[in-house]
User: What shape does this take?
Amino acid sequence: MTSVWGIARSQSVALLGMEAMVVTIEAWTGSGLPRTTMVGLPDAALTQAKERCRAAVLSAGFSWPPQVLTINLTPASLPKAGSHYDLGIAAAVLAAEGVIHPSVLEEIVLFGELGLDGKVHPVRGVLPALLGVRRVGIERAVVPVSQLNEARLVEGLTVHGVRNIQDLIEVLNGESGVDAIAEVPGPSEVSASPDLKDVVGLSEARFALEVAAAGRHHLYFHGPPGVGKTLLASCLPSILPDLSVREAMEVAAIHSLVDLSIDSLPVRPPYSAPHHSASLASLIGGGARIARPGAVSLAHRGVLFLDEAPEFSTQALEAMRTPLELGEIILGRCELSVKYPARFQLVLAANPCPCGLASTPRSKCTCTPMAIRKYGARVSGPILDRIDIQSRILPVRQCLADKQSMDVDSSLTVAERVQAARIRQSDRLRNTTWTTNAELPGRFVRKELPLPTGMGMVDSAVINGSLSARGVDKVLKVAWTVADLLEADRPSGDHLALALALRQGQENPQ
Ligand SMILES: [Zn+2]
Assistant: This one.
């Protein structure tokens, strides 16, 4: 049976960043010398799709139209990239050839790449694509069988996993496949982050980390190499609260665009630690045609750690400003710009000087004072303005380390305190749009919340120049977090003194 007009249609999805748009694939056959053409703004990978699909269909034992075949992807104005249109193209051609009844393709979306042998290969972006599809009311989808678990994360969608062209035909002709509405699989534990009980000594820095976690404050560690800055930063995810289902879905959808093995929703916040030599594209996102998410988006709802922060290029550090301000990144391309969420908690670490030896005892540092000053100034004002807590870490003497490491809290214990502090914050802020102290605008902290006692010490810090006017708001926010951690209803003078010390990177006065 050939379709009436020599036209068959199937549906797939164009992914523009996290946004999914349904694309209709038309296969038109007409008389003339055998020739397959593809129209509708396809990219290079997609232009090759016709060759892959032809080989796959023939390998599976079916015929490819022996006349003129035109494949059109609409809307034509939408740039289309990637190899996931293969299944839709093959289905439309098979329908035009009468192997599949064209009507079965009307309410189903197809997403997957074909091999020359007719096998279906996994593709990136299944989760954001199907979330978008579900939003426009489509209820059935076909995906590579290896990505069935990822597709099943989308509630209310009937998904079919196919291994090859034969499976595809059987599913579409209703000859196989379980049509049960997919249930959301239970979350799985994937946390592999180090534990705070492995951190030797460093009680001040541990406290700074705990306060940062509790109020979601950005944090800057200063200290010589090997002192434990990286270990501390990598412990941060282990003391943050679990992701909510909505957050986990956002995280999984972003990771789906770079990772082929999303099997379940993540429970713990992600951790992204790009190297200072990483390209700008891998940091903030980029790539040909449609930009991919970078480290700032892979850290969304989690932690972005920039070790040796002054070594990052000025361009890279400047590019952090937008996500820090807006919680998202917009990547412009000539054809279109895409937007990715990038709401992360920033942790920076820096050595005291370019050689790293400046603050060690009997220092062998040979850096000039000018070089040290320049190095420190590389992380510029706009980023420093967002940092609420600065912690200076000094090397721990071994005898002291042994004593201090005897009885330290594990990540689990600290996480419980952090969670309790978060609940205090969300209770206090329940009539606002904010949930954590770090998000609060300065005016709100100064005018709407009671001021701590002992504001005189903050005034003196401003007068003697060790604290900027903007820094005052930060100290107040951190003081609230300290109070929340210590289960006080409002910050006391002691809490304020602690906050001031954490802001200025001094030693903890306790
Ligand atoms: Zn040095």
